[in-house]
Amino acid sequence: MRQVRPNVVVANDPTVWFRHGQYINHPDHRAAGQAAIEALYPAVKKASIFPELLAEGHQPHVVEEVWLGPTDAPDIFVDISDVFDEKIALICDHASQFPPEATRAAFARIAREAGAPRGLQLAESFRTVRLSRDTVRALAGS
Questions:
Q1: Model confidence over 19-46: pLDDT tens digits?
Q2: Where are the domains of the chain?
Q3: Which CATH superfamily is domain 8-140 in?
Q4: pTM confidence score
């Protein structure tokens, strides 16, 4: 993170346990999201964490936004109409878990439900967290 210095990180929402009233989110998906969040703070932001990185020229960095999904608290919606077929093909590469017809139907329904209220044919939704170099001042509104 200190080397690449991304402005946006996309990760699984580690707080989501249940989806659509029918699904328990995989523990490894939640763990991957938690690991991504914990990689951002404090390790990347604080100079005192991993001082050997400073010696290697990797200065602290603050990622501006974290996009978490799937989520139950979305605040940003992305039109996926142009890439939906590719998304389904990639998901269906996990042939033992995702039969093509049912997968297309399920993911299309979810994408339509996310997009319709926003005027989008198919959408994915994310919960965003906007980080700051100085959290206390940001929370104070200054």
A1: 888 889 999 999 999 999 998 988 898 8
A2: 8-140
A3: LmbE-like (3.40.50.10320)
A4: 0.88
